[in-house]
Amino acid sequence: MPKDKRHKTWDYDDRAEAYDRVVAAGNPLYERYAEVLEAVAGKAGVRPGMRVLDIGTGTGNLAGICLRRGAEVVGVDPSEAMLARARRKFAAEAGARFLQVPDPFADLPFPDGSFDAVVSTYAFHHVPPPRKAKAIAEMFRVLAPGGRWAVGDLAFENVRAENGALRRFGWLEAEYFARIEELVPIFRALGTELKTAQLTSVTWILWAGKPTIEKG
Known about the structure:
There is one protein chain. By secondary structure, the chain is an alpha/beta fold. It has one domain: Vaccinia Virus protein VP39 (Rossmann fold, 3-Layer(aba) Sandwich), CATH 3.40.50.150. It is built from 7 helices and 8 strands. It has helices at residues 19-24, 33-43, 61-68, 80-89, 129-141, 159-168, 180-189; strands at 51-55, 72-77, 96-100, 115-121, 143-156, 178-179, 195-198, 203-209. Strands 1, 2, 3, 4, 5, 6, 7 and 8 form an 8-stranded mixed sheet that branches. β7 (195-198) and β8 form a beta hairpin. The longest helix is centred in the middle third of the chain and has 13 residues, at 129-141. The radius of gyration is 16 Å and the shape is globular. The termini are far apart. The relative contact order is 0.17. Residues 1-8 have low confidence and may be disordered.
């Protein structure tokens, strides 16, 4: 397990060229990849006219699904090489912007309530456990009241399930995987309920809504 670092950053410049081929080649880490992306867009309720933030956008695959649903999308990622590929893919899309943000789960350069949905796939596991609560709070900060949050990633119900998977699957390396039982109270403290659905032996969809602020 890599050591926790309070200011850990991550980028995959060295993987940008091959990333789309890897996810399409049957790598077990990305089992049901297209379904995961579609499920995240669906749970976020992405529809025409929405403002969507895609964190850890990489080469823009989830952003592309949101664009096809008629949304305006801002994709952020630490990797300029990944973003360059995303920009080339969606050069003709007026509703797409791709920005380099060094640590997007910690510091998003947007005002409060800027987006109707905040989504992410295969990126939240880069956030060390001590920082996950603050990362979720930062995502909720830029989410408009009544907006939707949705993530697709490798995750586990608890540490026992995670350890069991690490023993069973030789291709699975230890990372900062989300543990659902640890996330539930974080969302409860934000005044909402975390909902979950398991799609593969290691992949989950997580989603929640930001409460609407009542007048008065």
